[in-house]
Design goal:
Elements lengths: L2 H10 L3 H14 L13 E5 L11 H19 L3 E8 L3 H14 L4 H4 L1 H25 L5 E7 L3 H16 L3 E11 L4 E3 L4 E17 L4 E6 L10 E4 L13 E3 L6 E6 L11 E4 L5 H9 L26 H15 L2 E14 L7 E10 L2 H12 L4 E3 L2 H11 L4 E2 L1 E2 L9 E4 L7 E3 L15 E3 L3 E2 L1 H5 L2 H4 L8 H6 L2 E6 L4 H15 L5 E6 L17
Parallel strand pairs: 1-2, 2-3, 8-10, 14-22, 21-22
Antiparallel strand pairs: 4-5, 4-13, 6-7, 6-9, 6-12, 8-11, 9-10, 13-15, 16-20, 17-18, 17-19
Helix pairs in contact: 10-11, 10-15
């Protein structure tokens, strides 16, 4: 082969890079993807599921973007006024975690910087990776309306989030209360039920004998002996004949000597372990509900730092693992540890960092779901919102019917800070929820006001995406023309985190569904079977 032939073959091999970059440039110069309201043409709109600014996009995003791109181009060729709106999500806990990881590589922590400086570092991260994400979408040739790019932390969007919070609080849907939450001691925040991952682990089932006052004993079985430091009762099923005569008596907590009533409750599974359940209201959701119904005291034996509190007596200051080892040894020495069995069970872990989740009673901001979930369920039942494949509609409805109050506050530095202020004037303690920062307390006139440091769960702000992106709360021409959108394309794991909440918020604040069709696409997994994630690299 001659040199000339080699050169000819080299130049005739197709190289897509310069060709594709040239065409996307031409398309954008000619504004072919931009759409304005046009009453003479039918609208077709899609809002892109906003990627978190935690890193670069992966193949899962490429799959979803390809679906949306094909639909947008198809409807544009049909003559529809197609608009595919793009943007990114600030992703509170996920972004804070990746920036903290970056700081650790520099030998720093967020506490070393302080809140204001840390937030500046996150904005630097956003400028780098938010721009990279948009560049990737552009490089794929996606037919988005790049002139309409939105960010869940831009000024207009923040105004929408604040307005929604204040409005829901005024209706009594948002309130502050002590309730049991999923707590991650590494992230230092409450997290959603839907951000908890369950990992199968080989553990143990510990059978511990509790003596009864007046003679006799009963044996409980637990996978977490260290939580007995917070026990306030022992419960049995009212239909369990083995323990019927013991209800109403008093048990004595091993090691600490605390007196515990023996109660009967239908929620106790007589088939688990011995059929007798230790009740620790501060460290288990079922126990918390039982404790409230039976008016039991709550004793928090494990603190937010993942260590035993002063309530744990001689075990105070130990980590959970250290306490389990010490408590087990002391129970064995006291002769009340009857046996330890191997036991495989699912353990709750933080989706973001893998730390074991600790159920803790915490003072948090919650959102009632009862009034919002009914209309959002009905629009799927009657077909106004249609899931494809259809089976996901049934999954959606089942989840909505069993919805609990939503913990919307997070103990983070990056996110939408709650529009809440507390009056610190002596004898006042007024709580002020307002769209604008108050200058004085409406109750006492005092000016010593302290801003709530908590931020909102990321999914609270992203729930507004289908309408806040079109200009709400203003009555814009875009909102009137492009809302409701035609289709949402997403993956199954965020049906509850995001899809359901968008339906609820759209109905509540705009008075209409946010989209007509929800297409649940397949999920691309990594080689080890895990769902792809920017946070995992």
């Amino acid at each position: 082969m001659t040199e000339q032939t080699r050169d000819l073959k080299a130049t005739t091999r197709f190289d897509p890079a310069p060709v594709e970059s040239d065409w996307i440039g031409r398309w954008l110069d000619e504004r072919l993807f931009h759409a304005e309201p046009d009453p003479a043409r039918p609208p077709y709109s899609i809002v892109i599921p906003p990627p978190n600014i935690t890193g670069k996009l992966h193949m899962g995003h490429a799959l979803n973007d390809a679906i949306q791109d094909a639909l947008t181009r198809y409807h544009r060729m049909l003559g529809d006024n197609a608009c595919w709106l793009l943007g990114t999500d600030h992703a509170g806990i996920a972004t804070q975690n990746v920036v903290e990881k970056l700081l650790r590589s520099e030998g720093l922590s967020k506490e070393d910087l302080g809140r204001d400086e840390f937030v500046k570092r996150v904005w630097e991260w956003r400028r780098e990776y938010g721009g990279t994400i948009i560049a990737q979408i552009r490089r794929l040739g996606c037919a988005c309306d790049y002139e309409r790019e939105r960010f869940t932390f831009d000024a207009g969007y923040m105004r929408a989030v604040t307005k929604v919070f204040v409005a829901l609080h005024a209706k009594g849907y948002i309130y502050k209360d002590h309730y049991i939450v999923n707590w991650c001691s590494r992230c230092g925040t409450a997290i959603s039920d839907l951000e908890v991952e369950y990992v199968d682990e080989a553990g143990h089932l510990y059978h511990v004998r509790y003596e009864l006052e007046g003679g006799g004993s009963l044996t409980i079985a637990t996978t977490r002996p260290e939580t007995m430091l917070g026990d306030t009762a022992v419960a049995v099923n009212p239909g369990d004949a083995r323990y019927a005569a013991l209800v109403g008596r008093t048990a004595v907590l091993p090691l600490l000597g605390r007196r515990l009533p023996v109660i009967a409750d239908e929620r106790v599974d007589p088939e688990f372990g011995t059929g007798a359940l230790k009740i620790t209201p501060a460290h288990d959701l079922t126990d918390f509900d039982i404790g409230r119904d039976h008016e039991l005291p709550t004793i928090q034996a494990i603190g937010p730092d993942g260590r035993i509190t002063a309530e744990g007596g001689p075990y105070a200051g130990l980590t959970i693992d250290e306490a389990r080892e010490r408590v087990t040894a002391d129970l064995r020495a006291a002769g009340v540890l009857e046996k330890v069995e191997d036991y495989a069970h699912s353990v709750a872990t933080c989706q973001r960092c893998g730390t074991h989740i600790e159920p803790l009673i915490s003072l948090q901001w919650f959102m009632r779901m009862d009034e919002l979930k009914e209309p959002a369920t009905e629009v799927v039942r009657d077909g106004r919102v249609r899931f494809v494949p259809e089976r996901w509609g049934r999954v959606y409805i089942d989840w909505m019917e069993n919805l609990r109050p939503w913990c919307v506050s997070r103990q983070l530095w990056w996110g939408h800070q709650l529009p809440v202020w507390y009056c610190e004037a002596e004898g006042c303690a007024e709580t002020i929820v307002a769209e604008q920062e108050p200058q004085s307390c409406p109750r006492c006139g005092g000016t010593a006001l302290r801003r709530e440091t908590d931020v909102l769960d990321t999914w609270f702000s992203s729930a507004l995406w289908p309408f806040a992106t079109w200009g709400w709360p203003d009555e814009t021409a875009d909102l009137e023309y492009f809302y409701p959108t035609n289709l949402l394309s997403t993956a199954r794991e965020i049906i509850f985190l995001w899809v359901a909440r968008m339906v609820m918020m759209g109905l509540e604040f705009v008075g209409d569904i946010p989209f007509r069709d929800v297409y649940i696409h397949s999920v691309i997994q990594a080689a080890d079977g895990r769902r792809m994630s920017k946070s995992l690299g």
